[in-house]
Amino acid sequence: MVEVKLLGAWGSPFSRRVEMALKLKGVEYEYLEEDLNNKSPLLLKYNPIHKKVPVLVHNGKPIAESLIIIEYIDEVWEGPSILPQDPYERAMARFWVKFLDEKCMPAMWKAFWSTGEEREKNKDEAIEHLKFLESEIKGKKFFGGDTIGLVDLAANFIAYWFRIISELVGVELITDDKFPNLSKWADEYINSSFVKENLPDKDKITAFFNARIRAPDETKYFPKA
Amino acid sequence: MVEVKLLGAWGSPFSRRVEMALKLKGVEYEYLEEDLNNKSPLLLKYNPIHKKVPVLVHNGKPIAESLIIIEYIDEVWEGPSILPQDPYERAMARFWVKFLDEKCMPAMWKAFWSTGEEREKNKDEAIEHLKFLESEIKGKKFFGGDTIGLVDLAANFIAYWFRIISELVGVELITDDKFPNLSKWADEYINSSFVKENLPDKDKITAFFNARIRAPDETKYFPKA
């Protein structure tokens, strides 16, 4: 009997990436919600190094790190391909997701949660990164082409979470006039029926980040950790 | 005609990872040395986002980021496998190389180049990370098992570069008594004939980091950038 469990957190874009991948492949799984303020013994056992969600447990064997989990899912289960078949295209997809997590996410995050001159500098940096994404998505429906792929799943934070924070903190980054293609992609992504039904509730996410604004030191982490 | 070019830097462990992968596969390539203080128009054209080595150019198409390049090489060329065949083992290899680059490398680097109390704190952090590696390599010749694989290539900085820096700055991290298995692996790795002939000259590396000690602000970068 195949047994698939996902340890996740409702508000984490990293967990949601993996959930989307499982759903794209039609994999049945048991979802276990983690309380990140009081991590379960199971999470600490399965991800002793990072102690973070998501963790996929397949027949008792754990895998951590959302992008690594998604590659595993794509390799193990039949169904629509999440990574491109062509090795060069696959390398490019890996390049963009690394860029998203290592450059875009931290730069945007810093722009949101800094103030004054520091914020302006961080905004400029974020915009420099986003220009590369804008140019990559131009002329395509999804980063994956006509269908949702690895880069779309990884960019989910831009399409949903960061739009909400952007409004809350009053930092405009991906506007229709400056990033028309990226904006269009974000609309397309969150409104595609498959994604729509798998996004966390907007009011709950808003409340989470509102709490962060009120008590920045106490809720300084992304839903991730 | 297949054309493979590698833009690299002699002292960069990231470049050396890719060179090792090409040699493991027996791929013929043209090597182009980059002067990182005066980057070539070719490097800026092929890696406009990061402007870093290594870049592999295969039939005119560029790929950046050492670990992404190695996966590409493994997928495109015949020869000994660099990543494991089994999807779970492959996921684990990806996990460890991410851990090496995102956790071990920065923590060790900070321990080397800080002082006083700050250094002690950084050393403790590095040691915490290294304990996981110590336990992973225990009982195995290489991270890849009996033969050199992705994780060994990625851990090259621990086996060679960081040992040299460790001596230079007088910060002991991977000692025989604290990390017997990791030490043994490092010896095994740098002394395997295949690796040995592909390592940069020790005196040149020593001179490079000696310069860093004398003028920390001017040569603050790893050979990487």
Automatic annotation (TrEMBL), chains A, B:
Q: Which GO terms describe its biological process?
A: glutathione metabolic process
- GO terms for molecular function, please? glutathione transferase activity
Report the residue ranges that make up the GST C-terminal domain in this protein: 86-208
What Pfam families does the entry give?
Answer: GST_C, GST_N
List where this protein forms a coiled coil: none
E.C. no: 2.5.1.18
Which SUPFAM superfamilies did the record assign? GST C-terminal domain-like, Thioredoxin-like
Tell me the domain of life. Eukaryota
GO CC annotation:
cytoplasm
Catalysed conversion reaction: RX + glutathione = an S-substituted glutathione + a halide anion + H(+)
* Ranges where the GST N-terminal domain occurs: 2-81
UniProt entry keywords in alphabetical sequence: Transferase
Q: What class of enzyme is it?
A: transferase
Task: Give the UniProt family note.
Answer: Belongs to the GST superfamily. HSP26 family.
For this entry, the protein name equals: Probable glutathione S-transferase
Which organism's genome codes for this protein? Buddleja alternifolia
